[in-house]
Design brief:
- This protein is of the alpha+beta class and about 130 residues long.
- It has a single domain (about 5-130), classed as Electron Transport, Fmn-binding Protein, Chain A (Pnp Oxidase, Chain A, Roll).
- About 30% of the residues lie in helices and about 35% in strands.
- Strands 1, 2, 3, 4, 5, 6, 7 and 8 form an eight-stranded antiparallel beta sheet that branches.
- The chain is globular and about 40 Å long.
- The protein starts with a helix and ends with a strand.
- This is Nitroreductase family deazaflavin-dependent oxidoreductase.
- InterPro entries: F420H2_quin_Rdtase, Split_barrel_FMN-bd.
- Pfam families: F420H2_quin_red.
- Belongs to the F420H(2)-dependent quinone reductase family.
Length: about 130
């Protein structure tokens, strides 16, 4: 099973032939710029398409603090995305209050553990919308 750095490397090398499908769902690669370091960080994340955009969830397994990649995109919303062989720049934003219920339902349908993660924390777990620029 691919995970972490190895997942990113195999995904990039194979244009997602290895790594796009993961544990019964699908993943993309999100590259953010470190808010303090200025370095690029790439994370494989479960996603679902939403029109021309893509949805991801900043769950960190239900931890009380958000994942580093989310803090990075809050500081600099211009990100790089790879979906299979498609690499593009996107602008990341947190789903609005009006959008979130439908987006959450869609994401929890693809990865049911998201509902468990939300129950584990008082933090409101955001759904992030990645819009191609």
């Amino acid at each position: 099973m691919l995970y972490g750095k190895e997942h990113v490397e195999r995904y990039r090398e194979t244009d997602g032939a290895e790594g796009h499908e993961w544990q019964g769902t699908i993943t993309l690669l999100l590259t953010t710029t470190g808010r303090r370091s200025g370095k690029e960080y790439t994370t494989p994340l479960i996603y679902q398409p939403e029109g021309d955009a893509y949805l991801i969830v900043a769950s960190k397994g239900g931890a009380d603090e958000p994942p580093e990649w989310y803090l990075n995109l809050e500081a600099n919303p211009e990100v790089k995305v790879q979906v299979k062989g498609d690499r593009f720049t996107a602008r990341a934003r947190t789903a609005t209050v009006a959008e979130k219920p439908a987006f959450w339902k869609k994401m929890a349908a693809t990865w049911p553990a998201y509902d468990e993660y939300q129950q584990k924390t008082d933090r409101e777990i955001p759904v992030v919308v990645l819009e191609r620029v």
